[in-house]
UniProtKB/TrEMBL annotation:
Membrane topology (UniProt): Multi-pass membrane protein
PROSITE patterns: SPASE_II (PS00855)
Protein name as it appears in the record: Lipoprotein signal peptidase
Catalytic activity of the protein: Release of signal peptides from bacterial membrane prolipoproteins. Hydrolyzes -Xaa-Yaa-Zaa-|-(S,diacylglyceryl)Cys-, in which Xaa is hydrophobic (preferably Leu), and Yaa (Ala or Ser) and Zaa (Gly or Ala) have small, neutral side chains
Organism whose genome encodes this protein: Diplocloster agilis
Active site, per annotation: 113, 133
Gene name per UniProt: lspA
Amino acid sequence: MIYLIITAGILVLDLAVKAYIEKTKQPGDTQEILGGKVILQKVYNRGLCLNLLDKKRNIVVGLSAGCTLAVLLFYIGLLFQKGYHGLKLALSLLAGGALSNLYDRLVRKYVVDYFSFQVKWKRLSKVVFNLADLFIFVGSALAVLSTLCRRKA
């Protein structure tokens, strides 16, 4: 049950932050926070990661929906099995982020991204994320680590 609460919490949190950004920020406006290490801004991403396939909305929605469905089916099946706590946590993070971005793609027709990191690598500094993206990344990394650790045990 805790894993479903985590998934729902991520979904609600990210959608709430996106709604706040939509209401309070204009595209192009920036605001430095955390000593300038994080930049808040509103960016619309109509494609996949880094706006890939932004002119192919049907493909983007289809890929997003298909991947989200695959994650959800595996996740739900895993919830009924004993153990696998690391993988269940990973999939709860991944599912929450995927559902939030899929919601954006279906309802808004774009994903709202709203922060970037100011780092030495200028290419990374130009990439704008949302919390869903971070949870997808962390969930994916945790899933790999959990699977690798389980195989060694």
